[in-house]
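Good morning N.,

You mentioned wanting to compare the apo and holo forms, so I went ahead and generated the holo version with PRP. This is what I fed in:
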Amino acid sequence: MLRIAVQSKGRLYEDTMELFSEIGIKLSSAKRTLLIASTNFPVEVLFLRDDDIPQSVADGVADVGIVGENEFVERNENALIEKRLGFSKCRLSLAIPKEEDYKGVSWFEGKKIASSYPHILNTFLKKQGISAHCHVITGSVEIAPGIGLSDAIFDIVSSGSTLVSNHLKEVEVVMKSEAVLIGNPELSAEKREILNELMFRIDAVQAAEGKKYILLNAPNDNIEDIIAVLPGITSPTIMPLAKEGWSSMHSVLPEKRFWEIIGKLKSLGAEGILVLPIEKMIM
Ligand SMILES: Nc1ncnc2c1ncn2[C@@H]1O[C@H](COP(=O)(O)OP(=O)(O)OP(=O)(O)O)[C@@H](O)[C@H]1O
Ligand SMILES: O=P(O)(O)OC[C@H]1O[C@H](OP(=O)(O)OP(=O)(O)O)[C@H](O)[C@@H]1O
Ligand SMILES: [Mg+2]
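and this is what came out, ligand included:
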């Protein structure tokens, strides 16, 4: 049995539960239970506050954990990043009152900075040769300059709207973050095997992200030109249609290029174009 530490509630919780469902891990939804075993896979989920996840993995209370990279780096615990998960993307940035004139990082010399991330902040300041004071608070960081608690802040930014509503501007991006799967460095061979199966399934879900399955009918004369437009995994599948001189073509394409490719396909005489979602892809 592999024990996975997951945030009990908050931003990471929803995305993590969705990932479990996509990789076919069923959990009985017993409310307020802090440890739940899967009914169809040898894992159990331990629900914790995100702050406690890195240490629980380092200590072996949990074998692996899903946590924001920001929290993992801040805690500086002995665990390894096994996989980047691509959700809960944000950045850790320095921000100052918007009317301040900012010419560079030397602005922070001698200043007081409110943050929940003292370790990451102090490491950055030291590297830049800046001496400033970090005032540690655990939440509502953006309000600190407005109430005279600090001159600046160092906190999570995503859309930037919290900064705007608190009359702040982002001036330095110190780190980019996303959810990561972290693991205890000394997993037994049995646990490592379960983790490998888990990561294989995550890979299949990630490979399918942003990809679409496309089916179309094409005149045989234009098949070569259409193949040149379709960026298939290996090469497109081509099957003859009952209609003389026509074929059905199947391929996979990146969603981002969808409109650009569709235009070219139509001009090459493609008809009956169907675009379908792909759930999983095993290469
Ligand atoms: N606005 C955001 N956009 C995207 N990701 C975010 C955002 N805010 C936070 N995150 C990411 O989600 C993680 C969890 O954020 P959340 O606000 O749920 O944490 P928390 O309040 O510390 O929760 P807990 O009660 O578990 O300590 C953060 O560490 C960060 O990696
Ligand atoms: O750039 P934005 O898109 O505005 O996001 C940034 C905000 O999101 C997080 O807070 P959250 O909303 O999770 O509230 P919290 O204080 O309860 O953690 C974070 O602490 C920032 O305050
Ligand atoms: Mg927290």
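Residues 49-51 surround magnesium ion (ligand 3) (CB under 6 Å).

Happy to go through it together on a call whenever suits you.

Best,
F.
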